[in-house]
TrEMBL record:
Substrate binds at residues 10-12, 25, 70. Its cofactor is S-adenosyl-L-methionine; Mg(2+); [4Fe-4S] cluster. The gene is queE. [4Fe-4S] cluster binds at residues 29, 33, 36. Residues 16-224 form the Radical SAM core domain. It catalyses: 6-carboxy-5,6,7,8-tetrahydropterin + H(+) = 7-carboxy-7-carbaguanine + NH4(+). This is 7-carboxy-7-deazaguanine synthase.
Length: 226
């Protein structure tokens, strides 16, 4: 499998925010989100081949039992289940961060952290926008992930107009626990995060959904490897 980077960090988002974790970033993503803060990991060639055993050796130096498998889009790589099995056998709590357009059955996963991509993610370049929009949402796969794994749904909110799109998507899904739904500000820098946090806080107060932190942006201002 192709690994872009591995480092020790605090989980930045969702219900486990603040948890010391080993982050394993896989290379390759079929989407090209306009505001993506890890574009360097999008090409399938943006990394080095590693075996699950090599990855376990590297993260064994970190004082944590939590692993974040992210990307890119980690579920796009065929060998990802082998890594997840190795992490499970090593006694790691595994969070998978996915956009929810790929599905693997019966993979080891303690938390499926799903961030469905709204239209606010569409890139400005028309050549990128068309394939991105065609692939960014798959409600059938989202439903299977929700039905078969412990999950959280994290929505990147840019403007209040995103709420109608979120509501439409949630209405199309069955058995969504509202306490597992998080809104978080669209931001790539600390200044942008602080600017939009008040808006998202107001939206969460109005709708009753939880607001997710984005600690990696707040603390490290988008610095790579943090």
């Amino acid at each position: 499998m192709i690994i872009n980077e591995i480092f020790y960090c605090l989980q930045g988002e969702g219900k486990l925010a603040g948890t010391p974790s080993a982050l394993i970033r896989l290379a390759g993503c079929p989407l090209r989100c306009r505001w993506c803060d890890t574009k360097y990991a999008c090409p399938t060639t943006a990394g080095q081949p590693r075996t699950p055993e090599q990855i376990l050796t590297e993260i064994s130096e970190y004082p944590t039992r939590h692993a974040i498998v992210t990307g890119g889009e980690p579920l796009a790589q065929q060998d990802t289940p082998h890594l997840l099995q190795a992490l499970e056998h090593a006694g790691m709590h595994v969070t998978i961060e996915t956009c929810g357009i790929h599905y693997h059955e019966n993979i080891p996963c303690d938390l499926m952290s799903i961030s469905p991509k709204l239209s606010n993610s569409t890139p400005d370049d028309p050549e990128l926008a068309s394939p991105h929009d065609a692939a960014r949402l798959c409600p059938e796969i989202l439903q299977k992930l929700i039905d078969n794994y412990d999950y959280q749904l994290k929505f990147v909110v840019d403007t209040p107009a995103d709420l109608d799109e979120i509501a439409e998507l949630l209405d199309s899904l069955n058995n969504v626990n509202p306490y597992k739904v998080f809104f978080m500000p669209q931001a790539s820098t600390r200044d942008e995060y602080l600017q939009k946090s008040q808006l998202v806080a107001q939206i969460c107060e109005k709708t009753g959904f939880k607001m997710s932190q984005r600690l990696h942006i707040l603390l490290y201002d988008g610095q790579k490897g943090r």
